UniProtKB/TrEMBL annotation:
<comment type="similarity">
    <text>Belongs to the acyl-CoA dehydrogenase family.</text>
</comment>
<dbReference type="GO" id="GO:0050660">
    <property type="term" value="F:flavin adenine dinucleotide binding"/>
</dbReference>
<feature type="domain" description="Acyl-CoA oxidase/dehydrogenase middle">
    <location>
        <begin position="142"/>
        <end position="236"/>
    </location>
</feature>
<dbReference type="Pfam" id="PF00441">
    <property type="entry name" value="Acyl-CoA_dh_1"/>
</dbReference>
<dbReference type="InterPro" id="IPR009100">
    <property type="entry name" value="AcylCoA_DH/oxidase_NM_dom_sf"/>
</dbReference>
<dbReference type="InterPro" id="IPR009075">
    <property type="entry name" value="AcylCo_DH/oxidase_C"/>
</dbReference>
<keyword id="KW-0560">Oxidoreductase</keyword>
<dbReference type="GO" id="GO:0033539">
    <property type="term" value="P:fatty acid beta-oxidation using acyl-CoA dehydrogenase"/>
</dbReference>
<dbReference type="GO" id="GO:0005737">
    <property type="term" value="C:cytoplasm"/>
</dbReference>
<protein>
    <submittedName>
        <fullName>Acyl-CoA dehydrogenase</fullName>
    </submittedName>
</protein>
<dbReference type="GO" id="GO:0003995">
    <property type="term" value="F:acyl-CoA dehydrogenase activity"/>
</dbReference>
<keyword id="KW-0285">Flavoprotein</keyword>
<feature type="domain" description="Acyl-CoA dehydrogenase/oxidase C-terminal">
    <location>
        <begin position="253"/>
        <end position="396"/>
    </location>
</feature>
<dbReference type="Pfam" id="PF02771">
    <property type="entry name" value="Acyl-CoA_dh_N"/>
</dbReference>
<feature type="domain" description="Acyl-CoA dehydrogenase/oxidase N-terminal">
    <location>
        <begin position="6"/>
        <end position="97"/>
    </location>
</feature>
<dbReference type="InterPro" id="IPR036250">
    <property type="entry name" value="AcylCo_DH-like_C"/>
</dbReference>
<dbReference type="InterPro" id="IPR006089">
    <property type="entry name" value="Acyl-CoA_DH_CS"/>
</dbReference>
Amino acid sequence: MTIVDTPERRQLRELTRTFVTREVLPHLDDWERAGEVPRSLHETAAKIGLLGIGFPESVGGSGGDLLDTIVVTEEIIRSGGSSGLVAALFTHGIALPHIVGAAGGRSGGTLGGRLPADRNAATDPLVERYVRPTLAGTMIGALAITEPDGGSDVSGIRTCARREGDHYVVNGSKTYITSGIRADFVTTAVCTDFPGSGSLSLLVIDKGTPGFTVGRRLEKLGWHCSDTAELSFADVRVPVANRIGEEDTAFLAIMQHFATERLSLATQAYAIAQRCVDLAVRWCRDRSTFGRPLASRQLVRHRLAEMHTRAESARAYVHEVATRVAAGEPVVTEVAMAKNVAVAACAEVVDRALQLHGGYGYLRDAEVERHYRDARILGIGGGTTEIMNEIIAKGMGL
């Protein structure tokens, strides 16, 4: 038994597996075609306690920590769900932590997923207006950082907020915003000095605020059931009371929170790999060619063994790093390594799994085909593989 495999977390896995089997699998293909998951799914997940995992009970969550969120993410995918579903249903995992962290007396952000559970957080106005309803499944939040010309350059954010009395006037645009179509509010990174100065703040901006426009729905290679949008802000007036933490303190908070986001993506990567191993093993046992099951051939068995080894090795390393992050260790380099290790393992395993499925694996009817498409974003989101390598090189003193 490991720290990620305790009796309590086994029960959490079983709860997650039951949720996926009953509430997700009968509808997932339809959601993929529709381009989004229904809002009712958020309420269903909230009622059984899944939506609030990783957030303290004092703000409407279900308790637990980073390792519990990893268990849920892993089991959703291992049970036949998708990483696109994880992105759509748990967008609040990147939209809310800054609010809760700031309410607890911090400048925002929650390294390692350790969210404060004190009275300040429980009674903060932003917690009451946004966190509790979202964790109850009645609101949807999004996080808006990426800009059309910015990519991974957070310090270069050009969406600006000019202070005018009790309001900020926001101008700029964001892109690739997960759940941007459905979101009721957006936790938005803005420059509170001159464009590109790196002096960043976070504002909660309500959908429907004059000047705030949700642009076109972005069509993607994968993550089809997760809606993605462009956002624009033209003289949007946002109350100063909607600022998260102190002014000009958001850059560090955003950087800190990348640790949990990257570990979530790493978890999705090794979980996809594990699921594709399971699918490939089942296929190779059932599929016969020239009178014999595919699994009877040594070449196929060895290929499956290699795939299984890659997936399990990635899982073990991500769990090790996540355990250290949950304990509060500053392991920025190791987080980057974990993401790259898991993404590389996923890319190799998914490709081999589809190849073993032959022509059927190329069809939309095949689950492995969906994982093949969904896996490609994991080396881009949360910081590209190249950015992770820069972080690793810096950690090496290069």
